[in-house]
Amino acid sequence: MSSGRRGRISDDEINEFISKLQALLPESSRRRNASRSSASKLLKETCAYIKSLHREVDDLSERLSGLMSTMDNDSPQAEIIRSLLR
User: Fold this and answer.
1) Does the first or last residue of the chain, that is N or C, have fewer Cβ atoms within 10 Å of its Cβ?
2) What pLDDT was estimated at residue 31?
3) C-alpha pair distances (Å), 86 with each of 18, 57, 64, 82
């Protein structure tokens, strides 16, 4: 790498990152993007997917909190849930 290009990402590296991002998206997104999509479109879809994962985590956290509030803290079920969260 020449000193003038230090810190810059090559086109090959960008293409590799795009391929890796596409592989991380759910199967339905990958099918939609079977043809080479633009990097900006892929980044937008990746951000939307991450936001949906955050919403899912928040929902699951609320459901778990509700479940834990109905359990006896010393019950075997509560202990199992605590062990899974460690």
Assistant:
1) C
2) 56
3) 33, 16, 14, 7
Residue 27 lies in a domain: yes
Cβ-based neighbour number of residue 42 at 10 Å: 19
Contact 38, 18 (CB under 8 A): no
Q: What gap in Å lies between CA 75 and CA 53, rounded to an integer?
A: 30
Taking the complete model, does pTM exceed 0.70, yes or no?
Answer: no
CA-to-CA separations, 19 to 12, 24, 37, in angstroms, rounded? 11, 9, 10
> Alpha-carbon distance 19 to 13, whole Å?
10
- Coil, helix or strand for 15? helix
Q: Which amino acid is at 10?
A: S
Residue type, 81: I
